[in-house]
Amino acid sequence: MTMSHPLNAARPTRRSILKSAALGSAAALAAPYVKSTYAAGSLSIGVWDHWVPGANNALTKLCNEWGAKNNCEVKIDYITSQGEKDKLTAAAEAQAGTGHDIMSHRDWNIRIHQSNLEPVDDVISQLIKQYGPISPVAEYLAKFKGSWRGVPTTVGSQVKPCCSRFDLYQQHAGIDLRAMFPADESKWDKANTDKWTWDAYVESAQKLFKAGFPVGLPMGQTSDAVDWVGALFNAYGVVMVDAKDNIKINSDETRQAMEVARKIMEVSPPEVYAWDDAGNNRWLISGKGSGIMNPPSAWAVAKRDNPTVAQNCWTHPTPKGPKGRFVGQLPQFYGIWQFSKNKQAAKDLLLYISQKDAVAQLVAASYGYDLPSFKSMYDLDTWKTVEPPIGTVYGYPPRGDEQTSMAGAPARAEVGAQIYNQAINTVMISKFTQGHEKLDDVIKWAENELEGTLRA
Amino acid sequence: MADAVQTWLPGLQISARRSASRGLKQFLRHRSTIAFLMCLPLMIIIAALVIYPAFYSIYLSMLNKAQTRLVGLGNFTFLLSRDVFWMVVQQTAIFALTAVFFKALIGLVTAHLINNLPARGQRKWRGMLLVPWVIPLALSSLAWWWLFDPTHSAFNWIITGLGFHEIPWLSDPYWARFSVILVNVWYGAPFFLIMYLAALKSVPEQLYEAAAIDGANAWQKFRHITLPMMRNIIAITVLFSLIVTFANFDIVQIMTAGGPRNMTHVFATYAFMLGIRSGDLPLGAATSLFMFPILGIAAIFILRGVRKRGREIG
User: Which domains does chain A possess?
Assistant: First the structure.
């Protein structure tokens, strides 16, 4: 596979640069990325350490390629998210005003450090020009006062659709998931896919529970739990706090969604309240579970540890609710610290690794786990070809009527970060289902907590 | 002239060297000076790693969420208005007081048992019982987490093998509280053991012999000799352990991360959630500083008692 240099196609001339400069600061925000010359030097990157074995190598290879072409030494540190070490590192670097030139930020962390990050509008506008619209969730998180502070990564960015055991669903719930969501979007029949609703999910979960294979949806306070509950809430139109700081949790929509959650928890293993982000993966891999909501990492590990399970896994869209079909999305971002001494080189590298050819390599190395933020890239071969069975992760990128969403939105991102990271939505459900608290009391508690997130 | 210079210059140099050497010796003879110099590296380390961060966190706790302006005690008053924070205060108190009580009790009993063993056996037992304290806490907490794993708990495997029901070690909030306290006791009891054992060794044997002649039984010996002789050690050990246990982070973070339903959060894990995970460093700093007055007051009372008893003995 050859890789064209991202800037060859649109290398600006002297005249065009002068013309651009005359357009003023407003136009500068939307101007395409202009590569300037920079002395050979070094660039350090702190990147999320990938779950998928070997996936880091693809990024290292791309960075080294770019480094060799540009006579720039690239030093990469892979930082684990176990124990939030990546977030700790970012917080320390932001406070100290020194560290890596580029740091990858998971989900809300880009928002948390927005004021310490260099605007990257030129890079983003170039990418949008090349690949079309960007994910609205990425925009919600990384665009601050009209200016982009991060470039969405491919590495680690993910959505959390259903990953189900199609054999168990067919045998015990009478649902043929592969026929409903075949590995070719053109064959998706709307009349058929519309049947995959949260009510249908509850009904099938009850049947699978009776058969001894409960679904495994976590109800702890980590992202897998927060994300599937966020998707459920969005499907029912639940708004916790709106964009104007109005607390809206006390609504009929909330009551409906909580009722659905209660029915699911009734047929879930009791330990879901203690699961971290690996709990649901282990549940599926063990063969005890019939379905989870997760990126294909569980399937990838099952392929190695329990191939029989992997052969029967099918990743497909989430159920639909009265307000639509939503899937939780967790993009990651590369942010360039304002204290970086090599910002121009950093931008050039980010543009290089965001090209479709590079993205294809990263997606392939992660067996489809990594998800770019551009819908135009969802046609990559990996999702069609990885197996077993062939097409198993075709439904991983949002397709059909599935929309990406973020728990905590549409509140101001500063507020949303608090809602998300304090897992207010899953604590609500835990209080209602495990703590047997009255729904009105739970909603009142949530109102109080949400009021706290509005603190200036 | 040149010869004269050559003759008197070395003499001057020697005399100057002697006087400098004498000055240095005199300087070093001042006990306070040499003590200060020897303490200086430690003082620099403490200033850099303790005093500066402490003042910085106080400053941080008085900033607004965006860290752009001072809000005085606004973060503290905000915390006092939050239900979850009060739950965290209550949980931290339960966690620390229960754990310290059991660590002290187990340490005292085990120290007595070991003290009564023959000298040869003592060494072996002392070594074995210190193992939990020697293993890095993050590692041992991880091992405990595996034992309590919500789905594949080794303990539950044994329990169900014996025909009993599984115990929701980490998924039920009350069992989760029990589990984190248990691990803290397991980790911290050896510290009490070793301190109490040292204290027991320092009790003069003659006191016990005199008490035996007076017909005292084992309980009376313990109550009227051992306990009074160990009171200062007990007080200092409890104070030290209270401080460390109130500030505990690793065990709770690794085993429950504060869940389920925030019901195992302690100050440190809650501060981490607010400060690092949610990006509100000032509020996180304010949460962690809430420990300071509580522990400060405890330290004043305990150390006052220690000084009083010290004076009585003196």
Answer: 39-152+332-372 (3.40.190.10), 158-329+385-453 (3.40.190.10)
Query: Residues near A174 by Cβ (< 8 Å), separated by ≥ 6?
Result: A207
> How buried is A37 (Cβ within 10 angstroms: 0-12 exposed, 13-18 middle, 19+ buried)?
exposed
CA distance B170 to chain A (A): 6
Gyration radius from chain A CA atoms: 22
What residues in A contact B269, CB-CB < 8 Å?
Answer: none
What does the domain layout of chain B look like in residue ranges? 2-61, 74-313
Q: Tell me which of 3.30.950.10, 3.40.1280.10, 1.10.3720.10, 3.40.50.2000 is the CATH number of domain B74-313.
A: 1.10.3720.10
ipTM for the whole complex: 0.83
> Which chain A residue has its CA at the smallest distance from B270's CA?
A422
Q: For testing the chain B interface, which of A105, A112, A273 should be mutated: the one with the most B CBs within 10 Å?
A: A273
- What crossing angle do the helices spanning A343-353 and A356-365 adopt, rounded to 10°? 70
Helix (H) or strand (E) holding A163: strand A162-165
With an 8 Å Cβ cutoff, are A274 and B170 in contact?
Answer: yes
Name every chain A residue with its beta carbon within 8 A of the beta carbon of B176: 274
A316 vs A383: CA distance, rounded Å: 12
Cα–Cα distance between A304 and B78 in angstroms, integer?
50
CB of A105 less than 8 A from some CB of B: no
- Which positions in chain B touch A83 (Cβ < 8 Å)? 253-254
| pLDDT tens, per residue, chain B with 314 residues | 444 444 445 555 556 666 667 777 776 667 788 888 899 999 999 999 999 999 999 999 999 988 899 999 999 999 999 999 999 999 999 999 999 999 999 999 999 999 988 887 788 888 889 899 989 998 999 999 999 998 889 999 999 999 999 999 999 999 999 999 999 999 999 999 999 999 999 999 999 999 999 999 999 999 999 999 999 899 999 999 999 999 999 999 999 999 899 999 999 999 999 998 888 999 999 999 988 888 888 888 888 888 887 777 65
β-partners of residue A74 are A43
| Distance (Å) from the alpha carbon of A1 to chain B's nearest alpha carbon | 40
**C-alpha dist (Å) from residue A160 to A342, A427, B44, B192:** 35, 20, 50, 48
